[in-house]
UniProtKB/TrEMBL annotation:
GO terms for molecular function: acyltransferase activity, transferring groups other than amino-acyl groups. Gene3D superfamilies: 3.40.630.30. It holds the Pfam family Acetyltransf_1. PANTHER family: GCN5-RELATED N-ACETYLTRANSFERASE, N-ACETYLTRANSFERASE. CDD domains: NAT_SF. Residues 3-171 form the N-acetyltransferase domain. The keyword Transferase applies. This is GNAT family N-acetyltransferase. The keyword Lipid metabolism does not apply. InterPro entries: Acyl_CoA_acyltransferase, GNAT_dom. It comes from the Bacteria.
Length: 171
């Protein structure tokens, strides 16, 4: 498996919207109220919102391709654009998704390794993330890399208040 990582620009917007919606729906649609879920999708993956995030130097999206096929993406945040911690010595891994047809092939592990390398190159002391407390497979995945729970925070899908574990890995 040969993966390439491409930092997204505004010219990637349409593809970013499509993969964001596709992977989030595949991961969480069945576990949520349909109205709340659709409202969340419409907000979180809105064209103007994603374009604004793409144009912010403190938020970085990366496409992951196998050969020429888009198989996943991730997003990292620095400094004040982090969703919770806002520590300038850290990277927030806000999103990491592999398309459903490519899961189970260690692509997620390669993506996470790439995130850790990016954080080290930027001189960050640690990487942190939020993961839904009911997403036990993802929690186990992060724990295998050494991430440890340090707190929780609320996460809303529409009006539905859920709880995310905040997990951290010191570099």
């Amino acid at each position: 498996m040969h993966l390439t990582f491409h930092r997204c620009t505004s010219s990637d917007l349409e593809q970013l919207i499509a993969i964001s919606r596709e992977t989030f729906e595949a991961a969480f649609k069945e576990a949520n109220d349909p109205t709340d879920f659709q409202n969340y999708i419409d907000f979180a993956f809105d064209r103007d919102k994603l374009l604004s995030e793409l144009e912010n130097e403190k938020s970085k999206f990366y496409f992951v391709k196998e050969k020429e096929e888009l198989v996943g993406y991730f997003k990292v945040n620095e400094g004040e654009v982090q969703t919770d911690v806002k520590d300038f010595d850290s990277f927030e891994l806000e999103r990491i998704y592999v398309v459903e047809s490519h899961q189970g092939r260690k692509i997620g592990a390669a993506m996470l390794q790439n995130v850790l390398e990016l954080a080290k190159k930027e001189g960050k002391q640690y990487v942190w993330l939020g993961v839904w407390e009911e997403n036990t497979a993802a929690i186990r995945f992060y724990q295998r890399f050494g991430f440890k729970k340090f707190d929780t925070h609320p996460y809303y899908i529409g009006k539905d208040r859920q709880t995310d574990w905040l997990m951290r890995l010191d570099l």
